[in-house]
Structure prediction request, 100 residues.
Amino acid sequence: MTEQHWEVVDVVSGDIQAELLRGLLEAQGIPVMLSKEGAGHAFGLQVGPLSEIEILVPSPSKEEARQILDIYYAGGYTSAESSEKDGDKLDDELTNAKPD
Prediction:
């Protein structure tokens, strides 16, 4: 059995942002794990260093995940009403993206 290696592609503050990004990446077919600080999660902290959540993806999906997150942070997704159009835009941008 081969053990899968996971890599951090982003660190966010709070469950809401982490779950939003998990949904975005999973919608593109990328598996996601969230790693939360134990004490912060136990106390329900949503701000500060103890609220940080790491977004992890399998190593082979790292570059694709980073491209998707770059598009998201650049405003590539604006509303639920345009999600189908944005999905097409994302597909086009990923297809035409140049490797770093």
